[in-house]
Amino acid sequence: LYKDECATCHGEDGSGVVPNARNFGDVDYMRGQTPARFYVIITEGRNEMPSFKDKFSDEERWNLAFYVWTFAVGGDTLEQGQAIFKQNCAVCHGEDGTGIVPNTPNFTDVSFVAQRSATDFFQVVTEGRGAMPAWQGRLSPEERWAVIEYVRTFAYEPVVKAATAAAPSTTGGGEASPAPTEAPAASEATTLPAVFTQNGCTSCHGDKAQGGAIGPMLVGLKAEHIEHVVRNGRPGTAMVAYDQATISDEDLKALAQALSAMTPHDVGVELSQAVVDHLTQAQAALEAGDKAAVETHLKKAQEAAADAPMGVQVTLQVMVQHMQDPDWDKYIGMRLAALLGP
Question: Is residue 340 predicted with pLDDT exceeding 80?
């Protein structure tokens, strides 16, 4: 359709041939536009451009609206975005983009994607929203744009080669980071009750409760705290409440006790010495009742954990957020004990 009806004015490469024809290869311009706006222009026409309402079907007009995006997005960008998405986003959004955890959008919903520009998505990815963390310090701008362009492909069907390279670094640099050293193996003696996987807990908290891109580490927490959160949820986050019809009291108690008995080492997590040092200082400040110092050292631990597993980073982020709670000292004390041990 594009070659037959549009290329005469816009060029086969989308760069524009006749005066005032839009250059679809202008990346900055395209990132600020929405497919819905292009659909309206194709349908109604604009200035010298005629209306195609009577010539193309509704589906064909939508296909054209999405097709012009291919001029501003290269195959390499989509491959990079695909790799980043699989490594960092699929745990919550699903590899097919339909969403796994509650309140995540369905990226295959054309109406959802069509109403939003790439810039809109970029802001959410950068700053975070709701239960979704901010990725500004974890992905470089180039990496964020790449994953956004890939996300948009769930609403249309570009030709995307399977990503064969490892995902780029998520530490904010432009180059891929060196392969991490192998994490210590999880304790074979430590197993979680089946209810943990059956209810989708792994989607947020990792397959061994080591934490993930959206949920903090659960090991070492007090059993009664775990039971309370599971039953009541956490309003404003992806953590929903589970009633007895979903998780029985017996199963919940067994899960809480199993998690409480585990340590970070049991799930293959080793904290760097710098992180341990700052957490130890935070613990000392907590015992002294110095809230400001506790928060300062927690934030320094966050900085020191920039290259740590995502579960560790999210756990520290959650701890800093809990500093605003009325009973912050109880929660922070529990978390520090879980991370540092007795």
Answer: yes
